[in-house]
Design brief:
There is one protein chain. The chain has about 280 residues and is of the alpha/beta class. The protein has two domains: about 140 residues, Orthogonal Bundle (serine acetyltransferase, domain 1); about 120 residues, UDP N-Acetylglucosamine Acyltransferase, domain 1 (3 Solenoid). Helices cover about 40% and strands about 15% of the residues. It has a seven-stranded mixed β-sheet with strand order 3-6-9-12-14-15-16. Strands 1-4-7-10-13 form a five-stranded parallel β-sheet. Strands 2-5-8-11 form a four-stranded parallel β-sheet, with no helix packed on it. A hairpin with a 4-residue loop joins strand 14 and strand 15. Helix 4 packs across helix 7 and helix 5 runs antiparallel to helix 7. The radius of gyration is 19 Å and the shape is globular.
Length: about 280
């Protein structure tokens, strides 16, 4: 399928939701075996928030907490904080625009565990802020069991985030992630030991974190910086710089203008080289 989305010309319908429905209708026609799934998750709903709540409940519901109860929790969060849904829309755009393997919006909503884990976290974070920590922990646990991502419900994640593949991502309690950040599998935003309090990284906007990157401690990764795959970062990285290695060194300043959007993981050797 070509990477093209038809959008309904209807000012009252959000473009992402319109495109999502159009693609679901097309898939249901060419692949009738999926029509029931597409109808249940997407086509029978009037809004993105309804499809999101249904899909999250469908995926995470179990014998202890039934899907219907989970859906009620999700809808409560969306009604109380509509920005959760607008962030989900931005996240869908990010996946489609940055992942060359993604052919449309249906794939992330139905299948991509990085996207589904992030949307569940957004609900869990709302619960955390409302003082409902136990339910937030429950959602964190279910995400870890089902999707192999571990995101503390207190962690703050901006809009337009892209978790490529998702497997093995760990994000600690006091981590803060800015808008338009991309990270690949096995990224860790963790602490350096048993310290308490503010102990996790602060990641600026537009940052790209390569596969297996470990960013540890209460340090900052500046806006539009890049951390190469497999690197271990223990000190802050300035904005617009690339850090690589174990321990990480700055090897390029300035890096590409918007690394999280270009997903450019290549390195320019020798342009800049000192331990951070």
């Amino acid at each position: 399928m070509a990477k093209h989305l038809e959008v309904v010309d209807d000012a009252s319908t959000p473009p992402v939701w319109a495109a999502l429905r159009n693609q679901a209708q097309h898939i249901a026609l060419v692949e009738p075996n999926l029509a029931s799934l597409l109808n249940a998750v997407i086509l029978r709903h009037a809004h993105l928030r309804d499809a999101l709540s249904y899909q999250i409940a469908r995926k995470l519901g179990d014998q202890e907490l039934r899907a219907l109860s989970l859906r009620e929790v999700a809808q409560e969060a969306y009604e109380a904080d509509p920005s959760i849904v607008s962030k989900a829309e931005a996240d869908l755009r990010a996946v489609f625009e940055r992942d060359p393997a993604c052919k449309g919006y249906v794939q992330p909503l139905l299948y991509f565990k990085g996207f589904l884990a992030l949307q569940t976290h957004r609900i869990g974070h709302w619960l955390w802020r409302e003082g409902r920590e136990d339910m937030g922990f429950y959602l964190q646990s279910r995400v870890s069991e089902l999707f192999q991502l571990d995101i503390h419900p207190a962690a703050i994640i901006g809009r337009g985030a892209f978790f490529d593949h998702g497997t093995g991502i760990v994000i600690g309690e006091t981590a803060v992630i800015g808008d338009d950040v991309s990270m690949l599998h096995e990224v860790t935003l963790g602490g350096t030991g048993s310290e308490r309090g503010d102990r996790h990284p602060k990641v600026g906007k537009g940052v790209l974190l390569g596969a297996g990157a470990k960013v540890l401690g209460n340090i900052s990764i500046g806006d539009y910086a890049k951390v190469a795959a497999g690197s271990v970062v223990l000190k802050s990285v300035p904005a617009h710089c690339t850090a690589a290695g174990v321990p990480a060194r700055l090897i390029n300043c300035k890096t590409c203008p918007e690394p999280s959007k270009s997903m450019d993981q290549t390195l320019t050797e020798g342009a800049y080289d000192y331990v951070i």
